[in-house]
């Protein structure tokens, strides 16, 4: 009788082993499926002091964990089978090529190389699976410490900027591409005042530090200062806006709020500014008050920033040096410092503390447009960019950032919670994330088909003193949102 060659024998053994492994996996799946219902039934049958909603969430999470580890177990069996088959094939190939058995050292080298590749694949799969499990817990945690409280709906186009008044009564201000700025009651979400003095997109809004004055920048190449007087309505009970299940749901434009009715039509309308600042030759993209409120700074697409005297409307300084359009400007809360950001990938620090010397420092660290740069109370500046990074800088050492935050989407106008030093990052991908100054991620604001922004988030603003909402965001879905962030719980989890 003819005898089988070594390679044929090896192939048959490999085939039989593969078949036995396949049967083993099917038996494992069958037995696991039979057991999946037991823990839930046993737990539901026991007496528990936990609320039913919490127990349901826990059962769902543990079910996800069980399914993830079951998948890992099956993939592990498959990978081990591949390792065994590969080792057998290497041994068979060695006999055919060399006509004799490979030395143990050569076979071990080839096998270990292939095994290491498969081991790396196993580690990658395990890491991806466990990340899903961890993110499930983080999702639940974020919902517990970050609650949507109120939505402010009334603009006819995207909202570029949001700001909170620094004097009583505390109101919310929004600047929109619909050529208007609106003031809102934070508690009720009612529109209180409409400013309609611009003939272009209103790109930013900032409140005077001590008077009921607002400063708006516009695409009509001007910045306006206008006075407002509001009477706050009686607050209504806040509805429960909490959600259950996954908070990451894809939304389309048709899911945006129905804005057929103009809720701002009943508001008192201001059409004439107190002062108009006119010196730019391009879009005025941002404006801010210097400390004390006697001067204001504007940033424009004409590559300059201008410093004005508020009382006389006269141009005091024209700040030149940027190579491309400016995107933002910000002033220090307690010192005469201004920071301007630009599409030229830099931001510049302008020092007006000494009237005789106006120094400028250039910060280079981003690889794309710097969308905003803001001060903290101390000697730090935080910059955000379209290169998907946020960098924290020390004003005393400008050569390199002291912390870098890397994200998965371009970053728009950031804001820092001064007291707690928490950075709010609004993204192009509709997310809003919270980080501390050292670059540690603290939370992501919940977003679903029922709450959160449905298009690009343009800006964020903290309000540390308001008892109801302490963070506001706005986006190109034509709405602003007020959030309540439980900061002590957030920092405790860190």
From TrEMBL:
Organism annotation: Carlito syrichta (Philippine tarsier)
InterPro entries: WD40/YVTN_repeat-like_dom_sf, WD40_PAC1, WD40_repeat_CS, WD40_repeat_dom_sf, WD40_rpt
Gene name of this polypeptide: WDR37
Region (Disordered): 1-50, 237-265
WD repeats, residue ranges: 152-194, 195-226, 277-318, 319-360, 363-403
Keywords noted in UniProt: Cytoplasm, Nucleus, Repeat, WD repeat
Coiled coil: none
A Pfam family that the UniProt record links to this protein: WD40
Cell location: Cytoplasm; Nucleus
Bias type Polar residues, positions: 1-13, 22-31
Keyword Iron annotated: no
Classification via SMART domains: WD40
Identification of the protein by name: WD repeat-containing protein 37
Record's compositionally biased regions (Basic and acidic residues): 32-47
Any one annotated GO CC term: nucleus
């Amino acid at each position: 009788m003819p005898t089988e060659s070594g390679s044929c024998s090896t192939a048959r053994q490999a085939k039989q082993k593969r078949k036995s492994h396949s049967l083993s996996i099917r038996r494992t799946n069958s037995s696991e499926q039979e057991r999946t219902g037991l823990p839930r039934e046993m737990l539901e049958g026991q007496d528990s002091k936990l609320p039913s909603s919490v127990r349901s969430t826990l059962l769902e999470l543990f079910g996800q964990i069980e399914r993830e580890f079951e998948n890992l177990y099956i993939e592990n069996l498959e990978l081990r089978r591949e390792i065994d088959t590969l080792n057998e094939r290497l041994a068979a190939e060695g006999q055919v090529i060399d006509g004799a058995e490979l030395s143990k050292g050569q076979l071990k080298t080839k096998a270990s190389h292939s095994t290491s590749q498969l081991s790396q694949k196993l580690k990658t799969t395990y890491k991806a699976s466990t990340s899903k499990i961890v993110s499930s817990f983080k999702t639940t945690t974020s919902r517990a410490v970050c609650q949507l409280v109120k939505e402010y709906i009334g603009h006819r186009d995207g909202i570029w900027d949001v700001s909170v008044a620094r004097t009583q009564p505390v109101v919310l201000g929004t600047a929109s591409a619909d050529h208007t700025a609106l003031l809102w009651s934070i508690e009720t979400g009612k529109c209180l005042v409409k400013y309609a003095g611009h003939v272009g997109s209103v790109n930013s809004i900032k409140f005077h530090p001590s008077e009921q004055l607002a400063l708006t920048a516009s695409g009509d190449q001007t910045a306006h200062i206008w006075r407002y007087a509001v009477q706050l309505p009686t607050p209504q009970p806040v509805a429960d806006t909490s959600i259950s299940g996954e908070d990451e749901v894809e939304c389309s434009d048709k899911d945006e709020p129905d804005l057929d009715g103009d809720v701002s039509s009943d508001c008192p309308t201001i059409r004439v500014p107190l002062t108009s600042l006119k010196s730019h030759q391009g879009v005025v993209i941002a404006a801010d008050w210097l400390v004390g409120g006697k001067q204001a700074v504007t940033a424009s697409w004409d590559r300059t920033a201008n410093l004005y005297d508020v009382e006389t409307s006269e141009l005091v300084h024209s700040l030149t040096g940027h190579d491309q359009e400016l995107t933002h400007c910000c002033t220090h809360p307690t010192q005469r410092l201004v920071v301007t950001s630009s599409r030229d990938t830099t931001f510049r620090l302008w020092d007006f503390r000494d009237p005789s010397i106006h120094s400028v420092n250039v910060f280079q660290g981003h690889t794309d447009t710097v969308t905003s740069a803001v001060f903290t109370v101390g000697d730090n500046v935080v910059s955000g960019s379209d290169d998907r990074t946020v960098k924290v800088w020390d004003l005393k050492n400008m050569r390199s950032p002291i912390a870098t935050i890397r994200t998965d989407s371009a970053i728009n106008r950031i804001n820092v919670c001064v007291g707690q030093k928490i950075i709010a990052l609004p993204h192009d991908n509709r997310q809003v994330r919270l980080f501390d100054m050292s670059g540690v991620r603290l939370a992501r604001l919940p977003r679903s088909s029922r709450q959160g922004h449905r298009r690009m988030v343009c800006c964020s603003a903290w309000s540390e003193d308001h008892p109801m909402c302490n963070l506001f965001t706005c986006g190109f879905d034509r709405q602003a949102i007020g959030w309540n962030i439980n900061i002590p719980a957030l920092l405790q989890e860190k």
